[in-house]
Write a structure and sequence with these properties.
Layout lengths: L1 E7 L2 E10 L3 H15 L4 E12 L1 H16 L3 E5 L3 H9 L7 E3 L2 H6 L3
Length: 112
């Protein structure tokens, strides 16, 4: 799993690529989110376009991301979720909690 940070005005896009299974990546992502929040970057988009596979640990990571950002008084949006992952989010009712957008641009626009 890889992540890439892209700053966009008052927002940050975290691009995720690869298999979201947990492990050491979960800690890396958590540290990244905490660092962004500590720097005052409260508007964060998770771009899931590059996520090829997601298991139950991966779902746990997404929930942890959401919780971390909310506790840090931030706003987290999800963008470019695949149909397969969206179906799983729907089954688990997480689609009712996570703000989802078709594109990163739409997610960024929602912060305005």
């Amino acid at each position: 799993m890889e992540l890439k940070i892209e700053e966009n005005n008052n927002s940050v896009v975290v691009h995720l690529r690869g298999k979201l299974f947990g492990g050491p990546f979960a800690e890396e992502l958590s540290k990244t989110l905490h660092k962004l929040l500590d720097e005052g970057k409260k508007n964060i988009v998770l771009d899931l376009d590059g996520v090829t596979v997601l298991n139950s640990s991966g779902f746990g990571i997404l929930v942890a991301c959401y919780t971390t950002v909310k506790k840090g008084s931030g706003n987290l949006k999800f963008a470019k979720i695949s149909n397969k992952i969206e179906g799983l989010l729907s089954m688990t009712k997480l689609d009712q909690i996570f703000e989802q957008y078709l594109t990163v641009e739409d997610a960024l626009e929602s912060f305005k």
